[in-house]
Amino acid sequence: MYFVEDCTYTQVRDNTTELYNLQMQCDSGQYNSLATLFLQSPESTVKDLMHSPIDKFSWKSLLTFFIIYYFMSVWTYGLAVASGLFMPSLLTGAAYGRLIGVLLHYATPMTFSEPGVYALIGAASFLGGVTRMTISLTVIIMEATRNITFGLPIMMTLVTARFVGNYFNEGLYDEHINLKQVPMLPWDPPVKSFRLTAGNIKSTPVKCFKAIESVEVVVQMLKRTTHNGFPVVTQVPVEPDAKHFGQFMGLITREQLILLLIKRAYYNAQTMEQCGDIAVDDFRDMYPRYPSIEDIDIPEEHMRMKIDLRQFINLSPYTCNESVSFARLFNLFRSMGLRHLVIVNENNKAVGMVTRKDLAKFRKWRKQGSSGVQQLGLVDGESDNDDFDCCRSDLTS
After folding, report:
1. H/E run at residue 341
2. Fewer beta carbons within 10 angstroms: which end of the chain, N or C?
């Protein structure tokens, strides 16, 4: 703003002086157009870019504002601060579009539309490239401008921005989800994952409990693992390389086990005396803030007591055979909002577990007309970007 001397005389239109013009280092009766772009509110800047006359902002101010604001938007988006990309994309696109409109007016003697129209189309193109939305963004922009005349060019701009962006990569928000390794499932399973089955992605060995388990085993299991669901089986095998883990009876969650320990819903195996009591209202009162297992103080003499899990387990959880396809498993998680799923064999014996992270780590990649399936390190905290040879495929445009 101090190095780009872009001073313009303040004009009077309809007996009113233009508002929100900042003088900065300019002389009396003049204003600095670059300072006006930067220092007024974003809403006023967008309004100026789309509705001001052609001579209010020079191409030097628009180019400087576009470059600086673009790199500031890229830099601040990755910071852990409360910020967004909607208004920065709108401002950057509007400045870029108006710059094109101003250059066309001064470069050729042909008659073009007002620069504000180019600012509107430029804002739509930047927003479409970032969000990859078409119909909803068209409605938003039309409602913001209160002008249905530009509905068709805005729609064509957004569709073009979406197709051009999808040719190179996913949308910015989708890419950020992949970078943060958030286990968020897309709408549809990867199209190249047809060869995967539940047996290929299941986690094994399974951390199981017997129907009647000791308090010590439950406490140690909760401390050693971070799993949220535990299958309850008839008998837990002692072999470390066992292929199955007993007849599946039901499923119990970590929160239920923690509440059972808090309420001391266990008994003395010798005297059959119940140590504590628990009711259904206790589960409702504790939800959704359950304490950690480290916050629970259990006396040493209670470690040898037993917990009967049969009256607390979910007897009819969702289960799948290990031969179920990846697509069917994906649709089950997506439609039912599941967090974990027990994988059983033909004899209804637990052989593995599939969680939302196990599905979310398989992502479709797209780059310059090619696509495939890659496995992300969501479960172990490490990223594995090796592509599956059986799933990789080149797409021709």
Report:
1. strand 340-344
2. C
Identify the residue whose tokens are 């504002």: 65
The dihedral built from the CA positions of residue 155, 160, 165 and 166, taken in this order, carries a sign that is: positive
CA dihedral sign, ordered 198, 203, 204, 208: negative
Q: Give, for 30, the enclosing helix (H) or strand (E).
A: strand 30-32
**What pTM was computed for the model?**
0.63
pLDDT tens-digit series, residues 153-195: 999 999 999 999 888 888 888 888 777 777 778 788 877 677 8
Are 90 and 123 contacting, i.e. CB atoms less than 8 angstroms apart? yes
Classify 233 as helix, strand or coil: strand
Q: Which of 344, 341, 364 is CA-nearest to residue 354?
A: 341
Rounded to 5°, angle at Cα 17 from 15 and 22: 175
Task: Look up residue 310 and give its DSSP letter.
Answer: G
What percent of the chain clears pLDDT 70, i.e. is strictly above it? 82
Q: Which of 303, 275, 308, 278 is nearest to 215 (CA)?
A: 303
